[in-house]
Design brief:
Length: 184
């Protein structure tokens, strides 16, 4: 009886132990060039294994500007127009004076669907932001990049960052349709 009780306890405890579910597949890679085209930045990175997500945030050393990258593992082949909706809903809810969505591009990049747009936001509290958004639908994960300006950037500065955001892509080390550059 003592052995049966011990066996039952062991079975219960082992079933309660957390199992490791792979959250990322290292064959699909987000290529985000470094350094950034302008400014000095402080990087903070956090991985949430439970939510299968990696968040990297860079804060400007001189302003409130930021760059935020999310990799959402195990979210393959998402519909990018649907993926835009949460960003647009948050913007419409927050920006009580002006909220504008300016489409930039929607195409394939290295064989993966991508969508890029700019939001302009003004609030009655005097906050004015512009945000460049880019989402990429990978075969393994969804990638989301946002460049937030807490000032009104000049057209030249906005163009510089749009070109930078456009250079961010995803590649695969195992799928020739999405091949990675030889030098990484």
């Amino acid at each position: 009886m003592k052995y049966l009780f011990t066996l039952i306890i062991l079975i219960v405890l082992s079933s309660c132990a957390s199992t490791t579910i792979p959250t990322k597949d290292t064959s699909e890679i987000l290529l985000q060039p470094s350094p950034f085209p302008s400014g000095e930045w402080i990087k903070h990175q956090e991985e949430n294994v439970r939510m299968a997500m990696l968040k990297t945030k860079w804060k400007s050393k001189k302003s409130l500007d930021s760059i935020i990258t999310f990799v959402l593992y195990r979210t393959p082949n998402v519909n990018l127009e649907n993926a835009m909706e949460p960003d647009i809903k948050r913007g419409k809810a927050s920006c009580d004076v002006l909220f504008e969505v300016i489409p930039i591009s929607q195409n394939l990049q290295n064989g993966y669907p991508q969508i890029t747009w700019v939001n302009e936001c003004k609030t009655s509290k005097g906050i004015h932001t512009r945000t460049i958004h880019k989402k990429i639908a990978g075969n393994k994960s969804k990638y989301s990049i946002s460049r937030v300006f807490f000032s009104n950037p000049s057209n030249n500065r906005l163009e510089l960052w749009l070109n930078y955001i456009d250079s961010i892509t995803v590649c695969s080390s195992i799928d020739k349709k999405h091949s990675c550059p030889a030098k990484m």
